[in-house]
């Protein structure tokens, strides 16, 4: 392929016009940049059985519309996943439970256990992806400039390590008062600028009265 490999850590495939992940890429790369291409689908296993040691994966500015992370068993040390600037309307983090099951969703073992940063800015999401709590190491989630309309009580459930949430420039009109209640490690910012909130949210502000926490609610409709 036209990808550039430094022979040690960095694989640079940006601006190469590829539509699929090349089969000849090294699985020893620490950083892989596939940005600004024509990639429409990305399978985390991609037919390969060997584990990658990737820590940073950049898939921004491609043509991805649907993405499932439920088969990502060969990315055990991935820390940063950049999906900005695609056309993602469906991001799957959990799997449907069997029809006879008592729960709507089932757990996925070893779902990106080291992932700290998930960035899905400038896409077509209309809701927070279900199952964020399965990402056990997740600290930062950026979902600005999508079409998210509300924040439900379970959207950030079990996200015990989450420190930074960016939801600015969406279409949010409703936030459940307890949506952020159990996020005891939030310490950077909850960014809700540029949404469609019409009434102040005192219960949320009380819930988020953690030391060093910033909540930005500017440029809303009230």
Automatic annotation (TrEMBL):
Q: Which SMART domains match?
A: LRR_TYP
Q: Which domain of life is it from?
A: Eukaryota
Gene Ontology CC: one annotated term: plasma membrane
**Has the keyword Repeat been applied to this entry?**
yes
Q: Which residues form a coiled coil?
A: none
| InterPro entries found in the cross-reference section | Leu-rich_rpt, Leu-rich_rpt_typical-subtyp, LRR_dom_sf, LRR_TM_domain-containing
Sorted keywords for this record are: Leucine-rich repeat, Repeat
Q: Which SUPFAM superfamilies match?
A: L domain-like
Protein name according to UniProt: LRC66 protein
| Organism lineage string | Eukaryota, Metazoa, Chordata, Craniata, Vertebrata
